[in-house]
Amino acid sequence: MNLKIAVLPGDGIGPEVIAQAKKALYAIGEVYNHEFVFEEALIGAIAIDKTGKPLPEQTLNLCLNTDAVLFGAIGDPKYDNNPNAKVRPEQGLLKLRKELGLFANIRPIKPYKSLIEASPLKREIIEGADFTIFRELTGGAYFGEKFLNEEGTCASDLCEYSEEEITRIAHLAFKSAQNRRKKLTMVDKANVLETSRLWRKVVQKVGEEYKDVALDFLFVDNAAMQLILNPKQFDVILTENLFGDILSDEASVITGSIGLLASASLGEKNALFEPIHGSYPQAKGKNIANPIASILSAAMLLEHFGLFKEANVIYKAVEKAIEFKVVTVDLKADSKFGTNEVGEFVSNFI
Amino acid sequence: MNLKIAVLPGDGIGPEVIAQAKKALYAIGEVYNHEFVFEEALIGAIAIDKTGKPLPEQTLNLCLNTDAVLFGAIGDPKYDNNPNAKVRPEQGLLKLRKELGLFANIRPIKPYKSLIEASPLKREIIEGADFTIFRELTGGAYFGEKFLNEEGTCASDLCEYSEEEITRIAHLAFKSAQNRRKKLTMVDKANVLETSRLWRKVVQKVGEEYKDVALDFLFVDNAAMQLILNPKQFDVILTENLFGDILSDEASVITGSIGLLASASLGEKNALFEPIHGSYPQAKGKNIANPIASILSAAMLLEHFGLFKEANVIYKAVEKAIEFKVVTVDLKADSKFGTNEVGEFVSNFI
Ligand SMILES: CC(C)[C@H](C(=O)O)[C@@H](O)C(=O)O
Ligand SMILES: CC(C)[C@H](C(=O)O)[C@@H](O)C(=O)O
Q1: Which of A105, A202, A262, B276 could cross-link to A137 by cystine, CB 3.0-4.6 Å?
Q2: CA neighbours closer than 13 Å in the CB half-sphere of residue A108
C-alpha cells in the first residue's frame, strides 16, 4: 500500500514522540512492503512563531490532500497564562479538526496487564476494563460563538448542536458497540442543558436502528464518578465535545498513564491520529516523554486503512516494551529508558 | 440560639435522609439549649405532582424568610428519559439557588481514616487528601439562555459570566485558602473558552489582594485526571458551575462514597445545606440510603451560624458511626444497618 501521511509534530514533546511513531511506520513499511511518504508541516505555537498563524494555509492544504494526518501535540504556557492573547496554538488544532470535518474522536481505554499496578486505582477495579469513548469533535462550546464585551467584564460561549451532528457520530458509536459488547452509554446533562436533551432524543432515535445494542444514559457528573467506581460497566461511551474532553482525560488514569493513550479523529473524507496527551512543555527536549501514545496512534492509522495485521504487530511490540519494562519514567520512576530508547525497542521488535 | 430552618425533603431518598439530619439537630438543640424550628415545604418532582410547579411560591417565600434551608434531594427518572418534558424537578432547585442568590457552593472532600479501604483508589493516593471545592452556583450554562428551534432539530445553551460573578466567589475561595494551606487552584478551559479566559483574568486580579495564597491554574481535562492521580496536591479548588458539578462528583470517589459528602450553598443573605448526592430513586423507601451526607449538611449549617462546638459534636458522632461500622450498605456490603439506624446512632451519640 502507498500512503501519503502529513506529519504535524507541533509543540513541546510533539516532535520527540512523533519521531518514534514514524520509526515504527518505517519499520512496518519495510517488513510488509508498504510505502509511507511523510510530509511535515507546522502547527501550533511553533507555527505562530514562524508564520504568525497557528494553522498556516500550507499546512491545511497538505492535510486536505493526504491520506491521513499524524499529529503530535500543541500548546505553550506562554499563551495559557495570558488571557489577552489573540492568537493561540489551540486555534490551529480546532481549525484543523473543523476544516477536515473530523467529527468523531475515538479514544480506546484498556489497561495493560503488566501495568495494572501503575494505576492509582485498585487492581480489582480496573482489571478487565475495556471501553471506547466516542467524543464529538467539531461542535459544542468549542466552536459556538464566543463573546467578550468591550470593557472585558462579560464573556460568553455558546454550545450548539444540530440533529445532524449528533446523528452521524451516533451511528459510528452504535456500529462500534455492535462489534463489541453491544452496550452504549450516552453521557449528557439532560436535566439541565437543552443541547443534552437534543442529544438524548436523537440518540434514542438512532438507537431504534440498533436494537441489538443496549442503550443507557448517565448524567455527566455521575459518569465522572462511575468511571472510577466501576469502569468495567462501560463498553462504548458517547458524548459531546467538552464532556468527552474531560471524561477521556479522566479515564486515562485507569491505564496508569495518559502517555499510553491514542486517538483517531475521523471525518467523511479525512482522518487524523494523535495521542490524547498534550504538549507537556516541562518535558520538552529531555528525552523523557512517553512515545507510546504516539506510536499507538500510528497503529490506529494502519487499522484505519485496513492494515490490521500490521497494526497488531505494533500493539504486540508495545506490549513487549511494557512487559520488559522498556518504558519511560511516567511508568517506572527509576527507568533508565528515554523516549528514543522506547521507540527504538518498538521499531526493532517489528 | 433560635433558628428557623426551612426543610425541603424533595424526591427519592430526600425525605429519609433529611429525617436523620433533623434528628441530629434536635439532639444538638436539647443538649446545647438551642431552639431549631423546622418548617417543611415542597420542591422537585413531588412539588410538580402536587402543585404543577417544581418550586411553588410558598416554598420560595418560606426559604426567603428563614435563617437557613436544609435540602434533601430532587430528581425523578420519569423526567430524565423524557427530553420533551416542559417542567422538570431540577428547575425547582436551580430557581431556588438563583432566587436566594446562592452563588457559592462549598464542597469539602476528606476521606475518613477508617474508610480508606472503601475507596477504589489506593491508600497511598488518598491518605492525607483534604481539599475543598468552591463551585460557582448561579451562573454559566445552567442559567444562560436556552434555545430549541421549532422543528426540534437544533439546540443551544449559553454559558455566560460577568466579572462581578467571578469576583465575589473568588474572594470567598481565597479567604478559605488563607485559613487552610494557602493554595488555590483555578480550574478552567482557558485554551478554548472565552468565559474561562475571563475567569482566569479576574481570579488573577483578585489574587493580588491575597499575596499569601499561591495561585495556580489547571485545564479542566487535566484537573479531572489530577484529582485521581494525586488528590493531595489540592487545597482549595475554584471553578465555574458545570465544571464544579462534574469535578465534585468525581472527587467523591476519594472518600469511598458520595453518600458521605455535604455541601453549603451561600449567598449574601441566604444559605442552603445539602448532600451532594442526588435523589437515588432506586433506593427510595428501602431504608438503605446513607444519611451521613445529610447529617453532615446539618453540621455545616451549625458552623455557618458559628456553632462550631455543636458542629464538631456531629462530626465526632459520624466518625464514631463509621469507626464502629454502623454504616449503610454503600460502605459495607453486608451491613445490617439502615438509614434509620445510622441516624439513631448519630443522634444518640450527641
Ligand atoms: C488542546 C485542546 C484544545 C484539546 C481539546 O480540548 O480538544 C485537547 O485537550 C484534546 O483533548 O485534544
Ligand atoms: C440536580 C442537578 C441539577 C444538580 C446540579 O447539577 O447542580 C446536582 O447534580 C448537584 O450537583 O447539585
Answers
A1: A105
A2: 16
Which pLDDT does position A225 carry in this prediction? 97
Structure confidence at residue B7 (pLDDT): 98
Partner B contacted by A232 (CB < 8 A): no
Model pTM above 0.90: yes
Listed by number, the residues of chain B in 175-214 with a beta carbon closer than 8 Å to a beta carbon of chain A are 189-195, 197-198, 200-201, 204
The reply to whether A144 and A240 lie within a common domain is: yes
Angle between helices B339-349 and B292-304 (to 10 degrees): 40
> Does residue B108 fall inside a structural domain?
no
Name the band, by pLDDT with cuts 50, 70 and 90, for residue A81.
Answer: confident
Tell me if chain A has a CB within 8 Å of the CB of B293: no
pLDDT per residue over B51-106, tens digit each? 999 999 999 999 999 999 999 999 999 988 787 888 999 999 999 999 999 999 99
Residue B257 contacts residue B114 (beta carbons within 8 Å): no
Q: Which amino acid is at B161?
A: Y
Q: What is the pLDDT of residue A145?
A: 98
B142 touches chain A (CB under 8 A): yes
End-to-end CA separation in angstroms for chain B: 18
Distance CA B48, CA B56 (A): 9
Which of B205, B236, B255 is a domain's end point? B255
CATH code where residue B184 lies: 3.40.718.10
DSSP state of B145: -
A129, A32: one domain: no
Q: What would the pLDDT profile of A264-298 be if each residue is shown by its tens digit?
A: 999 999 999 999 999 999 999 999 999 999 999 99
Contact criterion met (CB < 8 Å) for A229 and B120: yes
Q: Which of residues 316-345 of B touch A (CB under 8 A)?
A: none
Q: Does residue A51 sit in the same domain as residue A147?
A: no
Ligand number with the minimum distance to the CA of B75: 2
**A83 and B198 in contact by Cβ < 8 A?**
yes
* C-alpha B74 to ligand 2 mean position (Å): 9
Residue A186 maps to a domain: yes
What is the total residue count of chain A?
Answer: 350
Burial class (CB in 10 A: 0-12, 13-18, 19+), A125: buried
The beta strand positions in A32-123, using DSSP E, are: 35-40, 68-73, 104-109
Is residue B111 domain-resident? no
Q: A206 and A90 share a domain? A: no
Q: Of the listed B4, B249, B315, B332, which one is catalytic?
A: B249
- pLDDT tens-place string over residues B284-332: 999 999 999 999 999 999 999 999 999 999 999 999 999 999 999 999 9
B262 and B229 fall within a common domain: no
Residues A292 and A223 in one domain: no
Task: Based on the fold, state whether residues B95 and B129 are members of the same structural domain.
Answer: no
Domain count, chain B: 2
Residue A128 lies in a domain: yes
Please provide the average confidence, as pLDDT, over all residues in chain B.
96
| Cell numbers describing residue A304 | 484505519
Start-to-end C-alpha separation, chain A: 18
Annotated catalytic residue B221? yes
Percent of the residues in chain B that have a pLDDT greater than 70, as a whole number:
100
For ligand 1, mutation pick of A245, A246, A272 (most atoms within 8 Å of CB) = A245
Which domain covers residue B90, as residue numbers? 1-102+258-350
- What 8-state DSSP symbol labels residue B97? H
Is residue A311 a contact partner of residue A303, using CB atoms and an 8 Å limit?
yes
Minimal Cβ distance to A90: which of B142, B191, B243: B191
Q: A255, A290, A321: which is the final residue of a domain?
A: A255
> Which of A246, A258, A278 is closest, CB to CB, to B246?
A246
CA B295–ligand 2 middle distance (angstroms): 19
Question: Does B88 share its domain with B38?
Answer: yes
